[in-house]
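pls design
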């Protein structure tokens, strides 16, 4: 039995993570969850910080966490809990698989992409200063160490998952030093260590146009922080939205798996939320446990859950955001029924 930290988060977070608990229990997934808080939920629980030390300590102890959405104010207020978590735990690789889902009709029918995003630097470093009354500066940070680290990770991931090509999205024609360094390290890793993986580079604005015209030529997209954040949501829109795309954040020692959609406070507590993104992130966590700890039972549980939610979607058993009529609990029930067949 493996222990993982569960962070329900805010808004609909507690509802969708409860659905994951039920599905995991139904398939006998060998995972025990210990709950910790983050975000506004932490303050409501009596903590003095949005990201309590007890939450960080638990992730450091157990190595893995499954996290629901945490609210981040726009334009003012507290710093993003998500960014703080990634930087504190050095979760440098964000991974967002995006694929066409059974029964979810979109413009494209053959999307199969993985976005690999550098998760700790760039404009998300959070270094902003006021230099005059009406002038502020935000600094884009890049280090050679981090650029090489994410490039190595992406090529290793491609090899492990048997993917065929990596495309680097960049704006090195304008940001010649920061994005230029990112390209230099990606080229070096490809040429010296992974020449067997196909490699190409594409300016980010042209790449965005190409993606929405036809995503089929793409495989793994390697991006710095801001580009990866934007491109991963763009790609999610090709397959039905953030409700059908999982997310994971990897470091050398820890991994946090998360639903990347918002906390949706307007529907919280009404049983309307789609738990699929967090459930898909949970299957990524099970596969990670299988890969890193050699537990085949985790992989088998992940396969059963994936077949079950694919089967439910294909049979029209969908939540309202996907054009169906099921609530949070009812969708979990549909997945459980198929997983136990």
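designed seq:
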């Amino acid at each position: 039995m493996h222990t993982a930290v569960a962070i329900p988060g805010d808004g609909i977070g507690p509802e969708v993570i409860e659905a994951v608990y039920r599905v995991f229990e139904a398939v006998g997934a060998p995972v025990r969850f210990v709950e910790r808080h983050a975000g506004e939920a932490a303050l409501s629980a009596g903590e003095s910080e949005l990201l309590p030390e007890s939450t960080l300590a638990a992730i450091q102890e157990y190595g893995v966490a499954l996290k629901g959405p945490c609210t981040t104010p726009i334009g003012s207020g507290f710093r993003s809990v998500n960014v703080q978590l990634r930087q504190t735990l050095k979760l440098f690789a964000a991974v967002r698989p995006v694929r066409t889902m059974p029964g979810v009709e979109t413009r494209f029918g053959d999307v199969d992409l993985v976005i690999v995003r550098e998760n700790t630097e760039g404009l998300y470093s959070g270094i902003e200063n006021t230099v005059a009354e009406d002038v502020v500066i935000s600094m884009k940070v890049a280090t050679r160490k981090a650029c090489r680290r994410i490039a190595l990770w992406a090529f290793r991931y491609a090899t492990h998952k048997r993917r065929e090509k990596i495309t680097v999205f960049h704006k090195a024609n304008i940001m010649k030093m920061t994005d230029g360094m990112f390209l230099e390290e990606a080229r070096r890793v490809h040429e010296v260590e992974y020449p067997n993986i196909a490699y190409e580079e594409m300016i980010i604005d042209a790449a965005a146009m190409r993606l929405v015209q036809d995503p089929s030529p793409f495989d793994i997209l390697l991006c710095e922080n801001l580009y990866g954040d934007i491109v991963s949501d763009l790609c999610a829109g090709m397959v039905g939205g953030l409700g059908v795309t999982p997310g994971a954040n990897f470091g050398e020692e820890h991994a946090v798996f998360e639903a990347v959609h918002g906390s949706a406070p307007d529907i919280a507590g009404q049983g309307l939320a789609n738990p699929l993104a967090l459930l898909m992130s949970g299957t990524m966590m099970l596969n990670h446990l299988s890969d890193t700890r050699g537990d085949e039972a985790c992989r088998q549980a992940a396969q059963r859950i994936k077949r079950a939610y694919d089967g439910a979607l294909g049979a029209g058993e969908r939540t309202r955001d996907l054009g169906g009529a099921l609530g949070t609990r009812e969708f979990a029930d549909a997945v459980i029924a198929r997983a136990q067949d």
